[in-house]
Amino acid sequence: MRYKDFNGIGLSRLGFGNMRLPEKDGRIDRVKAAEMIDVAMKAGVNYYDTAFMYHSGDSEAFLGEVLPQYPRQSYCLATKFNIDFDSDYRKVFAMQQEKLKTDYFDFYLIHCITDSNVHRYVDEGGVDFLLEQQRQGRIRYLGFSCHSGLESLRWFANHHKWDFAQLQLNYFDWLYSATQQEYKILEERDIPIMVMEPVRGGRLSSLNPEAEAILHEAHPDWSIASWAMRFVLSLPQVQTVLSGMSRMEQVQDNLATFSDDYEFTHEDRDVLFKACAAFKRQVQVPCTACRYCCDECPMGINIPEFLKVYNKFKVDGTNGIKAKLDAIDSMSTPADCLTCGECLRHCPQGIRIPEIMTDLNERFY
């Protein structure tokens, strides 16, 4: 296992995320999940991340059952407070100590700052309370996780000298989102980064054939997911990379990756970015929102807006997509598409619009 120093602590580069543990009958499968943690622990993984809301509260309870079997100094425990889930930070903190059977948390996070809640964490006293817990020794290191815009991130990062931060960071978002700017904000303030979603919720563990062929040619022995892990490991500000593992095979693959001392090169990065471009071309439709298709649609479907959501679905998966589709201002929906082909005659990009409308209809209507 590879390690990196954090204030005198040798933290494993691989962190065990406990948001996607295996389930059975609607609850965490205690046997399988405990086996996974035991394998990780014996391999040297010493950072275990959870949150009050993971698995509807069962994640913390499960770790409170399993981790005390190991010496307390052999692992670091991280959990979080989410104001949108339960705003009573005093109650939540006490419950977390009880569920996790610990007097202190090694790492504690303000969970999921967004543009809508970032000021609440400060104005409603949550940050001050947690800083006091840190002074009392109940928290060793205090940080935050971010899903906000750049201005909110910058404002919150400037509140005081945070010990660390957790950021969604992967090569796809590095190229096609604001992740590089988010990284720079934390780098400028010398805030160590714990990485979440390094394989984008699993989406980057399996690519299209063209992209995978590019990667396999460069390193036949690397898994597709390991490319994503190796990329974030190569970034200097990154401390630990979290993986939300749900199968033993994922544990084994990650352990192989994080036990390999190979240094990701500039040439490797170029290969990965080439593959990412091929992947993006395959999963997304090149709509420019010219709206030529809309004028001739007999059903009045707002085609560009539906294509925008379709692109998001192809990259991010189904979560929240139906709500986005329902929010589109349109006379009709993909379910009303006649597949008449009028739109095809007017699309400069040659997008197969009727096929996409049919796909959306079958999946979401």
Describe the structure in your own words:
The strands form three sheets. Strands 3-6-7-8-9-10-11-12 form an eight-stranded parallel barrel, surrounded by five helices. The chain is built from 16 helices and twelve strands. 36% of the residues are buried. Helix 1 (30-42) runs parallel beside helix 11 (248-258). The chain is an alpha/beta fold. The protein has two domains: 3-276, TIM Barrel, CATH 3.20.20; 292-364, no CATH class. It is globular and about 70 Å long.
Name some characteristics of this structure:
8-stranded parallel β-barrel, 365 residues, 2 domains, globular, 16% strand, alpha/beta, two-stranded antiparallel sheet, TIM Barrel
Question: What does this entry show, briefly?
Answer:
The chain is an alpha/beta fold and 365 residues long.
Determine the structural class based on helices, strands and strand pairing.
Answer: alpha/beta
Envelope shape: globular
CATH architecture of the largest domain: Alpha-Beta Barrel
Helix/strand order: EEEEEHEHEHEHHEHEHHEHHEHHHHHH
User: What average pLDDT do the residues reach?
Assistant: 94
Indicate the CATH class of the largest domain: Alpha Beta
Strand order of the largest sheet: 3-6-7-8-9-10-11-12
What fraction strand? Answer: 15-25%
The CATH H-level homologous superfamily of the largest domain: NADP-dependent oxidoreductase domain
Termini separation (Å)? 47 Å
Q: Enter the CATH topology name of the largest domain.
A: TIM Barrel
Give the biggest beta sheet. 8 strands, parallel, barrel
The portion of residues assigned to helices is 40-55%
Radius of gyration, in angstroms, nearest whole number: 22 Å
